[in-house]
Amino acid sequence: MYAVFMATVRAATPRARYQSRPGRGVMVAPSLADLQGPTEGTVELPLWLFWSCPGHTFDLGDRDMRLWLYQTVLREAGRPEDLTAYLDGDTLIALWPDLCLPKGVRQAWEDAHPLLRAAAAAAI
Questions:
Q1: Residue 20 falls within a domain, yes or no?
Q2: At what angle do helices 103-112 and 114-122 cross, to 10 degrees?
Q3: What's residue 7's pLDDT?
Q4: What is the pLDDT of residues 25-55, one digit of tens each?
Q5: 6 versus 81: which is more confidently predicted?
Q6: In-domain check, residue 42
Q7: How many domains in the chain?
């Protein structure tokens, strides 16, 4: 067995002090501009993000479906690519006040991106 040392750089970092559920850290994008996911059409999430209904598609033209998709990805993302492939920064800002998220997810994203906190405050 050979010892191999690797340095890795992550585009997004899990926020250790925040949890989406017990034992699962929150993945946060370093910049909202990095989120360039689809804004129209239909999306099928991979099984590791949405296992409760394999094959289900989300119609991004339906606001409720967009909310459901964003809530799922924000809660379940375990890799930076999960965020960049399925979320769009401008759409996230627009939906942010109405997303139903665990406290740890909301706090991690708002701490990293004050613009989201401002969007939530403006909606009150």
A1: yes
A2: 110
A3: 34
A4: 899 999 999 999 999 999 999 988 887 776 7
A5: 81
A6: yes
A7: 1
Which residue is associated with the tokens 């769009």? 88
pTM over 0.85: no
> Which region holds residue 93: left if phi is over 0, alpha if psi is between -120 and 50, else beta?
alpha
Judge whether 6 lies within some domain. Answer: no
In sequence order, the 6+-apart residues with CB closer than 8 A to the CB of 29 are 11, 12, 35, 80, 83, 84, 87, 112
Joined together, the tokens standing for residue 54 give 């394999």
Count other Cβ atoms within 10 Å, centred on residue 46: 12
Confidence of residue 113 (pLDDT cuts 50, 70, 90): very high
The Cα–Cα gap between 116 and 14 comes to 18
What is the band of 75 on the pLDDT scale with cuts at 50, 70, 90?
Answer: very high
50: phi > 0 → left, psi -120 to 50 → alpha, else beta; which?
A: beta
Look up tokens 């139903």; give the residue. Answer: 100
1 domain-assigned: no
Look up the domain containing 94 and give its range.
Answer: 13-122
Please give the pLDDT value at position 55.
Answer: 73
Report the Cα 121 to chain-centroid distance in Å. Answer: 20
